[in-house]
Each structure stands twice: as structure tokens, then as C-alpha cells.
Specification:
Distance between the termini: 38 Å
Strand order of the largest sheet: 1-2-3-4-5-6-7-8
Number of helices: 1
Mean pLDDT: 86
Radius of gyration: 15 Å
Number of domains: 1
Helix content: 10-25%
Order of helices and strands: HEEEEEEEE
Low-confidence stretches: 13-26
Strand content: over 45%
CATH architecture: Beta Barrel
């Protein structure tokens, strides 16, 4: 299962990379990221679905997801990824949820803090629901924009 999710994320991440690369020849360049994630349902949630998790691999970070709505095939929401160094990546999410308990989420990067203040790009996470939350893999590209703080 994990191997299938990994290859799905790599394939989708390559598509995100191609789009981000074409869309931004930004100052600071474009950077590829891959890794794994785990998440739990937090005790407090301002929505019908929230997760709080950890990213490992190229992005050493925690993240928080808050659902904001439904689509015909899944849910939408926002993500806040906080790197171990304190920098923040902000995302607008769209998730396709499958009947077998798997999902694919695209986090469209909409900015952040420090070097991610004017960032663009996308991370794609392929995962599955677990009894306590979610787990899976992610891949994608983030381009650092003009005016990014170092």
C-alpha cells in the first residue's frame, strides 16, 4: 500500500513540478520536496474536519489542516505548514477522497513567511485514513518568489 501511495505521489508531484516550473522562473528558484506524513485529529477543531501532523523527509515540519467545504469528490481546506526553523508555508487544499479510505490532496502554495512569503507551487499528498488520523507520502515543487525574505 505504502509503495503504491509513494509512486502515486511521485507521479502527481512530477506534474505539479512541471506546472510550477513553467509558471515561475522566480528569484530563489524552484525546489523539489518529497517525504512522508502522519496526522491525528486534534482535540479542538473549528470545522467538521481537522488534522495536525508531522512531515518528514525534505520538509521537516508540522502541519495543520482545516476543512472549509465539500466538492463532489472530496473536500477543500487550508493548510499551514510550519518548518522546524519557524518559516511557514500557507496552502489552499483540494482533496479527492476515495471509497476505500485513500485520498489525494493537492496543496496549492499561496505564500507564507520568510523565504516562502511570495512562494508558489504545489505539494501532492497521497494517503489513507487510519483509526487515529491519516498517513502517507508527499511530493511537489515550491518556487520562491521575488521579494522572499531569506
Amino acid at each position: 500500500m505504502r509503495r503504491t501511495l509513494w509512486w502515486a505521489a511521485i507521479g502527481i508531484g512530477a506534474l505539479a513540478w512541471a506546472g510550477a516550473r513553467a509558471a515561475s522562473a522566480a528569484e530563489g528558484g524552484c525546489h523539489s520536496y518529497t517525504g512522508e506524513f502522519t496526522a491525528v485529529t486534534p482535540a479542538e477543531c473549528p470545522s467538521f474536519l481537522c488534522t495536525h501532523g508531522t512531515l518528514t523527509g525534505d520538509l521537516a515540519a508540522t502541519y495543520d489542516f482545516v476543512a472549509t467545504g465539500f466538492t463532489p469528490t472530496g473536500i477543500t481546506g487550508t493548510s499551514t505548514i510550519t518548518l522546524d526553523n519557524g518559516a511557514v508555508i500557507s496552502g489552499s487544499d483540494a482533496s479527492a477522497v476515495n471509497p476505500d479510505g485513500t485520498f489525494v490532496t493537492t496543496v496549492n502554495v499561496v505564500g507564507g513567511s520568510r523565504q516562502f512569503a511570495h512562494a508558489t507551487g504545489a505539494l501532492v499528498a497521497a494517503g489513507r485514513f487510519t483509526p487515529t488520523g491519516t498517513e502517507g507520502v508527499y511530493a511537489g515543487v515550491i518556487c520562491l518568489g521575488v521579494g522572499s525574505e531569506r
